[in-house]
Amino acid sequence: MTSSSVDPSSRAFFDAKYRTAEDPWDFAIDPYELGRYRDVMVHVDPDRHRRVFEPGCSIGVLTEMLGGRCEVVDASDLSEVAVQRARRRCAHLPGVTVEVGHLSDPPAHNYELIVLSEVGYYLTEPELERAIEVLTERLTPGGRLIAAHWIGMSADHRLRGHRVHDLLADALPTWVLAHHAVHLDESHDGYRLDVWDRP
Ligand SMILES: C[S@@+](CC[C@H](N)C(=O)[O-])C[C@H]1O[C@@H](n2cnc3c(N)ncnc32)[C@H](O)[C@@H]1O
User: Fold this and answer.
1) Which residues form the domain of 74?
2) Whole-angstrom distance, CA of residue 48 vs CA of residue 199
3) Nearest to 119 by CA among 107, 132, 110
4) pLDDT per residue over 21-77, tens digit each?
5) pLDDT digits over 149-190, tens only?
6) Are strands 189-197 and 72-77 parallel, antiparallel or unpaired?
């Protein structure tokens, strides 16, 4: 079975992707991706966001940045291959733990920060709505949700990036939208970055 015939929301699909390339999206080297991570990190406050959950962490580039600033980072990814790479990348950071796991199945902790970066659009609308419910229950009062998603179109995605953020906004009507921006980019289409604080 080729990776193109595998369900693009399955572990097998992502494992196959990571077996064909060490860093399939060039997260560690692409200036666009590194700029996106910098934009995300602007909204991370190490004094307030001590315990962080980052689902869909891939090879751990953003995880490493979070781990450099926050006390505890629990990261996860559906792909075991990606998890191994993220663990290697973050091995020097004692506060970082990386486990295989689905977005809607976080570790049994409460968090001051959850970072949803380029992962929400692999779910269907009902799956994402359920995941948002589960994740937001895990955020402490005053906790922060940062979402960053590419706004282009891919056959691998079930939802567009804007739809992911619109569903988040619909689910969080009483939360404070601390930041909203759409960053356009000629070669990559661009991404939307939204930051909500739980009252
Ligand atoms: C495009 S990468 C994004 C990586 C990283 N968050 C970033 O922004 O650089 C998407 C990652 O999400 C993972 N993934 C896809 N669906 C997932 C799910 N339902 N739960 C957890 N991880 C998932 C994939 O294995 C892949 O590593």
Assistant:
1) 3-197
2) 14
3) 132
4) 999 999 999 999 999 999 999 999 999 999 999 999 999 999 999 999 999 999 999
5) 999 999 999 999 999 999 999 999 999 999 999 999 888 899
6) unpaired
Number of compact structural domains in the chain: 1
Q: How many residues does the chain have?
A: 199
How far apart are the CA of 180 and the centre of ligand 1, in A? 22
Angle at 86 between CA 126 and CA 124, to 5 degrees: 10
The helix (H) or strand (E) run that includes residue 120 is none
Pocket residue to mutate for ligand 1, from 77, 125, 154, most atoms within 8 A of Cβ: 77
Nearest Cα residue to atom 16 of ligand 1: 122
The minimum-distance atom of ligand 1 relative to the CA of 101 is 21
CATH number of domain containing 65: 3.40.50.150
Q: By the 8 A CB rule, do 138 and 111 touch?
A: yes
- Other Cβ atoms within 10 Å of 113 Cβ, number: 25
Q: How far apart are CA 28 and CA 99, in angstroms?
A: 20
